[in-house]
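Private note to self, pasted from the team thread so I don't lose it. Backbone tokens:
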């Protein structure tokens, strides 16, 4: 089985619609794909309706958190999307995205970049607006060559000249809320230092003690030495280890199934989850 547990659609900052994502996942030879848009479950219905035969969809989300001043992302799988406390926390994060993006645009304009809210909103195309949309605008304007080039202290990285902090959840509270909603939590790309500051391994140990289920080890932002170190840490702490592409369509240089999760790990995730269940494909609908 080929299992990719971290993918984004146009419901947040990917370029595929949810229906396109599941069809592309099947075309890429995946058996299981997870839809984990940022702080939203808005793409679920479209993705579920379009799952092709032979593919299984795992519903989830990538939740924005902050610990001791360091941003981190928590993947949540198979939780009840209507559980009120977790829904309320997701809405707090989501509702802060527009004013935050507008503040970053103002900062960029003060730096001489002719970016506009209208341009960023067009790129977001109704998705949950975020830094990748602003980064895409910078590429369009010729300010940077690639989206990744925008995520430096020169521009949008944490602490960067145009960075504006948003509301982010406490990861210990997120673990509690996701568990209460029947879900499973995995710390996304925990050692992706190229994205900015990362939390120390002692913090991962504290999160594990609070109920964290796993860490994402096999990821494009982890080199071989980092993956080996994280695998050892996971074994020491009793955490599951996952692998995934962090696919964003054409917005990032990664392919569906670039990294994958061991079927036994996937089986353990589904065994632990009680809030929702994987959706087997029945052929899907021909929506675009």
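Design output:
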């Amino acid at each position: 089985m080929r299992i990719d547990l971290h993918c984004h659609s146009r419901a947040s900052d990917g370029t595929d619609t949810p229906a396109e994502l599941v069809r592309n996942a099947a075309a890429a030879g995946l058996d299981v794909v997870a839809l984990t848009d940022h702080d939203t479950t808005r793409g679920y219905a479209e993705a579920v309706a379009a799952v092709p035969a032979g593919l299984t969809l795992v519903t989830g989300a990538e939740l924005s958190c902050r610990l001791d001043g360091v941003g981190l992302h928590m993947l949540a799988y198979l939780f009840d999307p209507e559980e009120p406390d977790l829904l309320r926390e997701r809405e707090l994060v989501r509702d802060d995205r527009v004013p935050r993006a507008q503040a970053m645009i103002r900062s960029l304009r003060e730096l001489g970049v002719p970016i506009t809210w209208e341009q960023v909103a067009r790129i977001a195309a109704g998705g949950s607006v975020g830094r990748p949309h602003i980064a895409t605008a910078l590429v369009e304007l010729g300010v940077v060559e690639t989206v990744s080039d925008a995520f430096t202290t020169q521009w949008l990285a944490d602490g960067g000249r145009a960075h504006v902090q948003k509301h982010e959840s406490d990861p210990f509270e997120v673990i509690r809320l996701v568990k209460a909603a029947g879900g499973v939590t995995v710390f996304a790309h925990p050692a992706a230092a190229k994205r900015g500051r990362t939390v120390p391994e002692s913090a991962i140990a504290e999160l594990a003690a609070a109920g964290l289920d796993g860490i994402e080890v096999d990821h494009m932002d982890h080199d071989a030495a980092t993956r080996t170190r994280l695998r050892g840490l996971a074994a020491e702490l009793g955490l599951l280890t996952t692998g995934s592409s962090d696919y964003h369509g054409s917005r990032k240089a990664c392919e569906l199934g670039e990294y994958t999760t061991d079927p036994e790990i996937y089986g353990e995730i589904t065994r632990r989850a009680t809030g929702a269940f994987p959706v087997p494909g029945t052929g899907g609908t021909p929506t675009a």
